[in-house]
Structure to design on (84 residues):
């Protein structure tokens, strides 16, 4: 799965990549000022746009008000590859 996941990663915008890094790191409050600063996510509206794009690509899913990986393989790859 690594080559396919890496290709998907490379097709994402820089902001979408930073959002995925934040989610892989366990960030729950992506729109908070602290999270946006910590992960260089920019304005809250940009975070919303990036999250919605990732949801539409079936990379992320929203459940019970939280955002997480839709694909468990992508989640494991993200934790391994994106979180130091």
């Amino acid at each position: 799965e690594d080559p396919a996941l890496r290709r998907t990663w490379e097709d994402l915008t820089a902001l979408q990549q930073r959002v995925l890094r934040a989610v892989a790191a366990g960030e729950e409050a992506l729109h908070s000022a602290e999270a946006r600063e910590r992960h260089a996510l920019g304005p809250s509206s940009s975070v919303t746009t990036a999250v919605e794009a990732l949801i539409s690509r079936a990379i992320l899913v929203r459940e019970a008000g939280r955002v997480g990986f839709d694909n468990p393989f992508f989640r494991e790859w993200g934790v391994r590859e994106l979180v130091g």
Remarks:
- The chain has a mean pLDDT of 92.
- The longest strand covers residues 60-63.
